[in-house]
Design goal:
single chain, Rossmann fold, nine-stranded mixed β-sheet, 9 strands, 31% helix
């Protein structure tokens, strides 16, 4: 649902979501907030070609104990989509940290889905004093874990992509054929530009080429939860074991779920996340 800055609306028929746009140093970033403002902060970061709306079904399960903050990364959702700004992973992470600063959040557990977990890792590298713990959901540890698609569903040669291309692209996000991908998330892809789509994809690849995530995380000393749909068709779920290089990492496979367990089975995805945050979240002063 489109709302004006600062307006609240009903999310999923239950929770009041506050939607606003933050004017950061180099862009405008769209932010959603749910739950008590004094509760421990939980920052949710979406994957490439998605938006904050990808977490809609999870949010009602999390707001009982958290201040849930979602952002649209630059180039996605309702955030700005300029052609003259950097989409590099560290810059996306820097903006996420700046958004937390503007919201008065000093500490947060950061959760990233897919390439959002790459941004979450970069945020922990840049702002370790803010990130108390990390949870990665179906985030491949390195490029070796990537499952190459049989054919390109979208690309700069044709933009915007056709409905058939979009649905083929979306189909690999789930464990089973015929899953009804939410239409609003297909709209998020349609709303991107060829530049923002290709540049963000390349940025994730570049970051992983420089150093794999377990190597980056091992030196940070942050509590880590790794959730992985066992039937992921984009990243090999067996690669989750590579995160054991991170001292104390907790790794949990979710049988019967694919690349996007937050949509396929929100309760089963939320349960281990809530158990993890109950230990590591920090309440606002």
């Amino acid at each position: 649902m489109t709302v004006s800055d600062g307006e609240s609306y009903v999310n999923g028929g239950a929770e009041a979501t506050e939607s606003s746009t933050l004017s950061l140093d180099d862009c405008d970033l769209h932010v959603c907030q749910d739950g008590p403002r004094a509760a421990p902060a939980l920052l949710l970061i979406h994957g490439s070609a998605s938006s904050a709306r990808s977490w809609d079904r999870m949010v009602p399960l999390l707001t009982g104990s958290h201040r849930v903050i979602r952002i649209d990364l630059l180039g996605h959702g309702r955030s700005a989509k300029p052609a003259d700004r950097s989409y590099a992973v560290p810059d996306q992470a820097r903006r996420a940290g700046e958004a937390l600063d503007r919201l008065g959040v000093e500490h947060a557990v950061v959760v990233g889905h897919s390439s959002g977990g790459v941004v979450a890792t970069a945020l922990a590298e840049l702002r370790p004093e803010v990130v108390t713990a990390l949870a990665l959901v179906n985030t491949g540890p390195g490029l070796d874990a990537f499952i190459a698609p049989e054919s390109a569903a979208t690309g700069p040669a044709q933009w915007p992509p056709s409905d058939e291309q979009l649905r083929r692209f979306a189909s690999t996000a789930f464990s089973r054929a015929g899953y009804q991908f939410p239409e609003e998330l297909l709209d998020d892809v349609r709303g991107m530009t060829s530049h923002t789509f290709t540049t963000t994809m390349r940025a994730t690849r570049s970051y992983l080429e420089q150093r794999a995530l377990p190597e980056r995380l091992a030196v940070l000393g942050k509590p880590l939860l790794v959730l992985f749909g066992e039937d992921d068709r984009r990243w090999r779920s067996s690669s989750a074991s590579e995160y054991r290089a991170v001292p104390g990492a907790r790794i949990e496979l979710l049988p019967g779920l694919g690349h996007t367990p937050l949509l396929e089975d929100p309760p089963r995805t939320a349960a281990p996340l809530l158990a993890f945050t109950a230990i590591h979240a920090v309440r606002a002063d």
